[in-house]
Amino acid sequence: MPTINDIADKLGISKGTVSKALNGADDVSETLRKKVLETAVEIGYERNRVRKDTANRLCIIVENIHHEDPGDFGHDIVMGFKKLAVPAGWEVDVVAITEERQKEISYDAFMLSHEYKGAFIIGMSLLDPWMEELKTARTPAVLYDNYIQENPRVGYIGVDNEEAYMMAIRHLYGLGHTQIGYLGGDMDSFVSRKRHDAFLGAMDAHGLTVKQNRIGCSYFISECTQKYLPRLLNSQVTAIVCATDLLAQAVIVSCMDMGCRVPEDVSIIGFDDAPFAAYTSPALTTIRQNQEALGRCGFYALNSLISRTYIGTLLLRAELITRASTASARRGKLTTPRKIPNSRQTPV
Amino acid sequence: MPTINDIADKLGISKGTVSKALNGADDVSETLRKKVLETAVEIGYERNRVRKDTANRLCIIVENIHHEDPGDFGHDIVMGFKKLAVPAGWEVDVVAITEERQKEISYDAFMLSHEYKGAFIIGMSLLDPWMEELKTARTPAVLYDNYIQENPRVGYIGVDNEEAYMMAIRHLYGLGHTQIGYLGGDMDSFVSRKRHDAFLGAMDAHGLTVKQNRIGCSYFISECTQKYLPRLLNSQVTAIVCATDLLAQAVIVSCMDMGCRVPEDVSIIGFDDAPFAAYTSPALTTIRQNQEALGRCGFYALNSLISRTYIGTLLLRAELITRASTASARRGKLTTPRKIPNSRQTPV
Question: Can you give the CATH number for the domain in which A7 is found?
């Protein structure tokens, strides 16, 4: 087991300086502290005497997701996690970690410096620097909607997207829809890829063909509504599956703007069952994710990893919530949309 | 909420008789008792006053799997489940349910009659009568190595087979093997299908082609060793992936019998890391399933379902255990096996 001495030897500094650096003393420069931490991680150093006030610390790392207010996407996830963790004796910090911060310090060094025993990580994209490091990370982490292959210390929790889109497509198919399009996020996000593939799989399972001009994926909602949506509507889709409720809401409004009635001309399905989904006009048919349950499962999986039960994947069931934004494909006759611009002429 | 009265009305018998039947009184015939139970399930009756001695009962349902002795496959699964369940205040029965018993009584009626709140089910094949019923079952169940689509009350736990075979094929590929065969169980088992597909997926991911005459699947080990193994060896495979350790052990012995040296002529990989895997000759390279962890996760998932957190899938990480049954494809030169019989002449 590597000790403080090994770090000191490797860096050619005193044991006292290493100790100070590890404990965040003021008289050690940030540069040296970083060097000590990275070396500690590199040689596999673990604190053996844990200070009493940091014995049971976990962190929830958030990026790109709001969680402070009850309406925020991450709110109930964080709450669900804390609801199990705190009574079990854990202290839980919620920390926002920007891409810049990830470039400054490695994941393991960050965890070591704060004496966190494990992290629940929400909202990272595949381009985040720590995603690469998590492939070999030693400190347990559970990722919401992200998957790392073959590192048993890192688990994945989320909703079963395959099942979700099987339900969505069966629902639309049952309503007579066969000309179905898809709008989703960009391929730098694990969950966007998953949903895109799940959509294709579900269409295939129902014997429906997917035309490439009926699929649009972008990081920007505006690109989906202004560039891809007109293309979908021009290609005579009668239903559109959207990868998030936020996108679905924007699509409904854009459809209306273009003179396309929802659900008479085109049915729309979202994903998440966000708090506002019941109050869009028309109310949104969507796939419910139970955020609080996701948070609870996040804690359970992290706790399991810390006690060396290596959960790799934990998927919650999705639930189809049927509201007014989907209807029979036969109910209205598809009217040629009034003012769909050619996508090339569209300002993004 | 349906009551005892509704059952009595529906069957045209007295409330007292219904009550007696539900409580297993001796003076009610088995036929009537069964009719009462099935009717209770049909109309959605739930006991509202639970007898104190049956308030917290769960069952582990086993079929086709031994669990009594420490060397048995199911032993540590059952133990892992109980280790969490009993301290949490649950009483756990282990019950063997034959196919005949499943035909006599439905799953929900069985659970209602014994006042079990949930079941952890180990060892069922896709042909078991209850597998069909579980698609619409109301009493929570967690299945080891079996999956039911879209019934949120039934969860699936197991090991990540895709990842397991990615590791196995990468290991073999790294040793120079490209001519790889597969022997597995029959397609009436969910996990056999999963492993078969995972093998194909992993081969494809490594750019390796799979020839149909290099795959053999059967319920009977003897069919694998006597019918398929000679065909594989004749087709010049240098490595064989087996879906279980038991099969791998039989394959090693059969290879030796046929004058094929393991690992010099052919490398063998198993699955499970059963207690005997370290003591085969040569010792078996295999994929470890942590049975006790599977049991613990089984309880967690069942407990979650009972408290309405709908876990659909929970997969543990697999681990590749490298022993002596795999070696470099270049180590030995493949000798034409001495006495491989033509499969048509082989007595099964």
Answer: 1.10.260.40
**Stretch B42-68: mean pLDDT, rounded?**
80
Q: Tell me whether the omega of the peptide bond preceding residue A282 falls within 30 degrees of 0, making it cis.
A: yes
How confident is the model at residue A342, as a pLDDT? 44
Name the residue range of residue A218's domain. 161-288
Q: Where are the beta strands (DSSP E) in B185-321?
A: 215-217, 239-242, 267-269, 286-288, 311-316, 319-321
Asked if A310 and B300 come within 8 Å (Cβ–Cβ), the reply is no
Find which of A315, A319, A321 to mutate to test the B interface (most B CBs within 10 Å of its CB). A315
CATH number at residue B210: 3.40.50.2300
Given a cut of 60, whether residue B341 has pLDDT beyond it is no
pTM value is 0.85
Question: Among partner residues A150, A309, A315, which is closest to B312 by beta-carbon distance?
Answer: A315
Distance between CA atoms of residues A219 and A184, nearest Å: 8
3-state SS class at B142: strand
Of B288, B304, B319, the last residue of a domain is B288
Q: Express each pLDDT in B172-191 by its tens digit.
A: 999 999 999 999 999 888 99
Q: State the count of interchain CB pairs (< 8 A) between A and B.
A: 73
DSSP 8-state symbol, B12? T
Helix or strand holding residue B313 (H, E): strand B311-316
* Cβ neighbours around A47 below 10 Å, total: 13
> How close B79 gets to chain A, by Cα (Å)?
15
> How many other CB atoms sit within 10 Å of the CB of residue B228?
23
Distance CA B225, CA B328 (A): 23
For residues A338-348, average pLDDT: 39
CB A83, CB A12: distance < 8 Å: no
Q: Which three-class secondary structure state does DSSP give residue A118? A: strand
- Whether the CA torsion B115, B119, B121, B127 is positive or negative: it is positive
Residue of B nearest to A315 (CA): B313
* Residue in A150, A313, A317 closest to B310 by CB: A317
R_g of chain B, CA atoms, integer Å: 24
**Do the domain assignments include residue B278?**
yes
The answer to whether the Cβ–Cβ distance between B152 and A309 falls below 8 Å is no
Beta strands B215-217; B141-144: pairing state: unpaired
Mean pLDDT of B206-216: 95
Using one digit for the tens of pLDDT, what is the confidence trace for A199-219?
A: 999 999 999 999 999 999 999
The pLDDT, as a whole number, for residue A251 is 97
Burial of A68 (0-12, 13-18, 19+ CB in 10 A): exposed
Residues 6+ apart with CB under 8 A from A256: A262
Cβ <8 Å between A310 and B293: yes
Average pLDDT taken over every residue of chain A: 90
Q: Which residue, A288, A304, A324, sits at the end of a domain?
A: A288
Whether the per-residue pLDDT at A49 is higher than 80: the answer is no
Nearest chain B residue to A165, by CA: B150
- The residue among A203, A265, A195 whose CA lies nearest residue A234 is A265
Q: What angle do CA A40, B319, B296 make, to 5 degrees?
A: 95
ipTM of the complex: 0.82
Distance CA A111, CA B142 (A): 35
Residue labelled with tokens 């109301």: B138
Domain annotation covers residue A244: yes
